[in-house]
Amino acid sequence: MPSDLCLETYRRLIATTLATEHGRFVAISGDRMLGVFDCCREARKTGYDEVGLGPLLVKRVVTIPEAPKAAHNHRSFH
Fold first, then answer.
1. DSSP one-letter code for 20
2. HSE-up of 62 (CA within 13 Å, CB side)?
3. Is 73 exposed, middle or buried (0-12, 13-18, 19+ CB in 10 A)?
4. Which residues contact 23 (CB under 8 A, 6 or more apart)?
5. What are φ and ψ of residue 60, in 5° steps?
6. What is the mean pLDDT of residues 6-18?
7. Who has the most CB within 10 Å: 1, 24, 26, 71?
8. pLDDT averaged over the chain?
9. Do 39 and 24 form a contact (C-beta atoms < 8 A)?
10. pLDDT digit string, tens, across residues 16-45
């Protein structure tokens, strides 16, 4: 079960270290990234080998590009 610290670590890393790893899998325990992997099974195995039943987050890296800002038109269409 991932801890809040695991999720905070993922959020912190997604903008920097993981920015180029879209679609791969990351294994995180506490404030430690255990690695980035091509498949979920490999990430889980490494996580369990490293931390046993300790806090573990295995998550697909998903980076969402920033949406373009819409131009605002303040004219009324009545």
1. T
2. 4
3. exposed
4. 60, 61, 62
5. -70, 135
6. 89
7. 26
8. 84
9. no
10. 888 889 899 999 999 999 999 999 999 999
User: Do the beta carbons of residue 36 and residue 25 sit within 8 Å?
Assistant: yes
Closest CA to 2 of 28, 25, 26: 28
What is the sign of the dihedral through the CA atoms of 34, 12, 10 and 21? negative
Q: Please name which of 34, 29, 37 lies closest in space to residue 61, comparing C-alpha atoms.
A: 37
**Collapsing DSSP states into helix, strand and coil, what is residue 23?**
coil
* Overall pTM surpassing 0.70 (yes/no): yes
E-strand stretches of the chain = 25-29, 32-37, 57-60
